[in-house]
Design goal:
Elements (H helix, E strand, L loop, with lengths): L1 H25 L21 H6 L1 H7 L8 H19 L21 E4 L7 E2 L2 E4 L3 E4 L11 E10 L2 E9 L15 E6 L3 E5 L4 E3 L3 H4 L1 H12 L6 H35 L2 E5 L3 H4 L5 H7 L1 H15 L2 E5 L23 E3 L6 E3 H14 L18
Parallel strand pairs: 7-10, 10-11
Antiparallel strand pairs: 1-5, 2-3, 3-4, 5-6, 7-8, 8-9, 12-13
């Protein structure tokens, strides 16, 4: 599987370079040119189908590529197509991604089997095409009536993982049956991880900060090893395992917080944060450690699964507007208490912001006057 990843990475870089070559040779940065000028002959645009067709002569020229399963190799052309189109055209919302990067050794970690047999799992083994029977620790049994559609194999710091995509057409989509009275607003922060509009708070765990000293020690040890040596590789793997542990601690914590919220509430309103903008400030390390973007992403997935809903509201002014009378009370980051001179309301700054977020969500189009939700968060 390691050999497969290396060959797939080389093919990914080759197909991506072919796209970039065409883009650089055939685009023009000017909207006008002289009447008499010389133009290079236009090349054919390498699209998904032409790049898939190029895999046939590839296997004839480089016989070792015959070892790869054909559909796995075709998925590479699909990945290049998606990455390049997001860079040129953008996604369905018109949001463009950055320029795709070439994958260096160790940065290409996943390959996909787009079609799997329904009986590929037999006890503690899984049958992967052209690889054979592989020992498997099954996280949980496959539910009755579900069919295995695809398998995605990923190499991580502590071993190999396979993610299975299941299908069952008889399972109905979760129907929203929520009560507007069971709604809450949450304000995420760095002092407390979140504060609800009901005044409850969740302390921030700071998983990265707690592991920072251990990480620094491992990195100092890495600096003493010769780059590329066996000891250097082992030390790099130790550092990767620590980062993987921190990531898993965060995701476990986020899942428990959302589980707690959805047990009590049907609608959760939160801020629509500009995470990239906040990450450029002097609080970048603390914001990255809080991982608000991952937290909100997991929340939308959990909401769709539980038949609940999440609403993203514009956070502008939520910290300085008084939740009691609407008066604007300017504050600095050091001011942690909201004290309104007009109505006399004195509460925690984050609690005030959470109430404002909830008040804005009450008028959201997803909540109608009968108290039912007419739009559910999209599935993950």
């Amino acid at each position: 599987m390691t050999r497969w990843l290396d060959m797939l990475r080389a093919q990914y870089n080759w197909l991506l370079a072919e796209r970039f070559d065409w883009w650089e040779m055939n685009r023009c940065s000017f909207n006008a040119c002289p009447l008499i000028c010389s133009l290079a002959p236009l090349k054919d645009n390498p699209d998904y189908y032409s790049q898939k067709a190029s895999l046939v002569p590839l296997k004839r020229e480089r016989l070792w590529y015959k070892e790869l399963y054909s559909q796995v190799l075709q998925e590479v052309a699909k990945q290049v197509k998606q990455a390049f189109e997001r860079f040129i055209k953008g996604d369905k919302n018109g949001k463009r991604s950055g320029k795709p990067r070439f994958k260096r050794a160790g940065r290409y970690r996943t390959f996909t089997f787009p079609q799997m047999k329904s009986n590929c799992i037999d006890g503690s083994r899984i049958a992967l095409p052209k690889i054979g029977q592989v020992k498997l620790i099954l996280h949980r049994p496959i539910p009755d009536g579900f069919t295995i559609k695809t398998a995605k194999v990923t190499r991580k710091a502590d071993g190999w993982y396979v993610s299975l995509l299941l299908e069952n057409k008889t399972v109905p989509l979760p129907t929203p049956d929520v009560d507007r009275a069971k709604s809450v607003g949450i304000d995420v922060g760095l002092k407390d991880f979140l504060v609800t509009s009901d005044g409850e708070s969740v302390s921030i765990p700071q998983f990265f900060r707690r592991s920072q000293l251990k990480l620094a020690k491992l990195q100092r040890q890495l600096s003493r090893h010769k780059k590329g040596s066996n000891r250097w590789r082992k030390q790099v793997n130790r550092i990767a395992k620590l980062h993987l542990k921190i990531s898993r601690q965060r995701r476990d914590f986020f899942s428990k917080v959302w589980h707690w919220l959805f047990l009590k509430y049907d609608v959760v309103a939160h801020e629509k944060l500009n995470i990239k903008g906040l990450a450029r400030t002097r609080l970048a390390k603390s914001i990255a450690d809080a991982a608000w973007g991952t937290f909100l992403e997991i929340g939308s997935f959990k909401a769709a699964k539980a038949g609940k809903t999440t609403i993203a509201e514009n956070p502008r002014g939520t910290s300085i507007d008084c939740s009691g009378c609407g008066e604007r009370v300017p504050k600095t980051l050091a001011d942690r208490v909201h004290s309104c001179p007009s109505c006399g309301l004195t509460i925690c700054r984050d609690h005030n912001a959470a109430i404002n977020i909830l008040n804005r969500a009450v008028g959201h189009q997803a909540l109608n006057l009968s108290g039912n939700v007419s739009a559910v968060a999209g599935s993950h």
